[in-house]
């Protein structure tokens, strides 16, 4: 059995697969050459992150493929329905990266309320005489404590974000397809467990009551946050998006940042990846990261292991 890890795999995942007797080709084949490579090498399993797309034409031209493994959560780069119709097993790693994405949300939030993203851009360019001016520019930040965080999408990642928020004394409201109250369990290092109820409300309500908003939803056909939604938000709201670029209408966001309606945004994902719009990249009120939510050593390690375990179980015909 041959496995192609086209966007890489953690060392632990690769070793687990090799120890189980599989051949792992850990190399990057360009999208245009991928079909012929898979055919020639008779690849059984294709592992991808978000950089490789697996569409109908690729699936049709690779009859040896049995499994497509998505090292991550979002499956928008894979024609999932078609692959399954063709009898392929498609697997992902839904739980492995939640903690890492949630921590990145807070990196953007903490940086946002204290203008760190902008200070980092400007301080190296300033001389002694400008230090005081910069100090003034970056004063007047706010605390997160006692503020309301609105979480859109209360799945695994949303819940991790809620835990961190509650842990630093924020109030959490959430919006999700499932209405009603949610209980969030906070576990501390000394085995103390605290359960806190979180109210779920429709997005239209959540956006009116949130000081900060964080999005945790799959790719959408049209943005969840556009001009109309932004107009309903509190003045000076901060918005963080680590889910998918298209869930926020970028031109509407840029306009709202320019007027001060939105005070800052933290973006890990963009409408146009891997070449986000220049206006987004150059906006001083946006804290940027290049789609690295899941890119910690720990998350990648868990992702590799979770994929390896599932592949071994499937190929050895065990129950997944
Ligand atoms: C995911 O869907 O798991 C994250 O966005 C990370 C990635 O795309 O690799």
UniProtKB/TrEMBL annotation:
Stored SUPFAM superfamilies: Formate/glycerate dehydrogenase catalytic domain-like (SSF52283), NAD(P)-binding Rossmann-fold domains (SSF51735)
GO molecular function: NAD binding; oxidoreductase activity, acting on the CH-OH group of donors, NAD or NADP as acceptor
Signal sequence bounds: none
Keyword Oxidoreductase on entry: yes
Domain annotation D-isomer specific 2-hydroxyacid dehydrogenase catalytic: ranges: 7-319
Keywords: NAD, Oxidoreductase
Domain D-isomer specific 2-hydroxyacid dehydrogenase NAD-binding span(s) in chain numbering: 114-293
Keyword NAD attributed: yes
Superkingdom of the source species: Bacteria
Family stated for the protein in its record: Belongs to the D-isomer specific 2-hydroxyacid dehydrogenase family.
Protein name: 3-phosphoglycerate dehydrogenase
């Amino acid at each position: 059995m041959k496995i192609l890890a086209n966007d890489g795999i953690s060392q632990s995942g690769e070793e687990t697969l090799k120890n189980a007797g599989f051949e792992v080709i850990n190399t990057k084949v360009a999208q245009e050459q991928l079909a012929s490579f898979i055919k020639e090498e008779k690849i059984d399993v294709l592992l991808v992150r978000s950089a490789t797309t697996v569409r109908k034409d690729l699936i049709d031209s690779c009859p040896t493929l049995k499994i497509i493994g998505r090292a991550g959560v979002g499956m928008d780069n894979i024609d999932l329905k078609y692959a399954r119709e063709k009898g392929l097993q498609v697997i992902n790693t839904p739980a492995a990266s939640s903690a890492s994405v949630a921590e990145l949300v807070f990196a953007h939030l903490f940086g946002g309320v204290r203008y760190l993203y902008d200070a980092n851009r400007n301080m190296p360019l300033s001389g002694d005489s400008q230090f005081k001016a910069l100090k003034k520019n970056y004063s007047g930040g706010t605390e997160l404590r006692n503020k309301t965080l609105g979480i859109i999408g209360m799945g695994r990642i949303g819940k991790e974000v809620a835990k961190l928020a509650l842990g630093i004394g924020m109030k959490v409201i959430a919006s999700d397809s499932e209405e009603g109250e949610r209980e969030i369990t906070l576990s501390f290092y000394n085995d103390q467990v605290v359960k806190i109820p979180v109210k779920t409300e429709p997005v239209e309500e959540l956006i009116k009551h949130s000081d900060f908003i964080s999005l945790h939803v799959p790719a959408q056909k049209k943005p969840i946050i556009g001009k109309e939604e932004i107009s309903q938000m509190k003045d000076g709201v901060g918005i963080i998006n680590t889910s998918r670029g298209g869930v926020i209408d970028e031109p509407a966001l840029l306009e709202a940042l320019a007027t001060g309606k939105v005070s800052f945004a933290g973006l890990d994902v963009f409408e146009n990846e891997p070449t986000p719009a220049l206006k987004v990249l150059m906006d001083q009120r946006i804290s940027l990261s290049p789609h690295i939510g899941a890119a910690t050593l720990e998350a990648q390690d868990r992702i590799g292991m979770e994929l390896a375990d599932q592949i071994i179980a499937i190929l050895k015909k065990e129950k997944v």
